[in-house]
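Take a record:
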Amino acid sequence: MRNFRDHLITSGETIKEALIKLDLLAKDAILFVVDENDNLIGSLTDGDVRRGLLKGITIDDLVNTIIQSNPRFIRKGDRDITKVIEYREGNFRIIPVLDKDSKVVNVINFRETRSYLPVDAVIMAGGRGTRLQPLTDTVPKPLLKVGDKAIMEHNVDRLSLYGIDDYWFSVKYLGEQIEEYFGNGSDKNRNIDYVWEEIPLGTIGAVSKIKNFEHDYILLTNSDILTNLDYEHFFVDFLEQDADFSVVTIPYKVNVPYAVLETDDRQITDFKEKPSYTYYSNGGIYLMKKSVLKYIPEELFYNATDLMEKLIKEEKKVISYSLSGYWLDVGKHEDFEKAQRDIKQIKF
């Protein structure tokens, strides 16, 4: 993945310097002109240079003389995902991301990124992984390799594919290895912070330690899940349902090979011949409004299911998002072996 700063050029640089950068960008040849504080001023392409040269401007002139002054952009944290979708479907490939002060903080390339979701991602990676011993005796479960990547790296890369660039990793057991492996994320245009659990805090308790989320929506996921979930569809469904909390659920169909009788005080009232029932299990991936985090107690063991139960009691809107794609919880040795087989066939 290209560093987004490769697409930036400072006003006051020459057209010759812009041409050198455009040549290095090859098929992604577009520059965004910024001031000394990285505030967006305009954009510049090969076509702008050609038109300038035809008008008599030389390559020693400044880029300011030929820039387009009203480039398209995405505002970081904007809840309206429709603009992102419109740009992508309108074949606008490369779009700068601006913060509230119009500073360029990222550049999205829709050849490499499917969306740009206004979401912070929290990945729970502090577990001991006892069921996968002895593999986890010296390596934390999130860093066990599935194919050529760590389990957790598959997760982070999938989330990044949907433009999520703000991450919080909750770590405990061998967390130093995870911190060393991912670093601060800057090499891949990510912002990664670490939340250390001094004591086990359950599947969501560590979130209470985070006070400076970037966005109004939080995505929480276990680190040991392999999935090809469409995170944009998950997010859009959340907005359309005006939900407070959504949980990815995995459908399981149970076929009963016999007739099932319905009774009332021993009297048979109805029966179904060899019925099928579909049940939905918790997939360990959640999306929530930041406003619901106030229900998580601080520094206490607390599970995501505890929060769900609390929100239901508070009459908040808690919904199920049924996953039709691939999902695997890599918790046991047989799951780990299945993951090694599936990774060769499933498109993530």
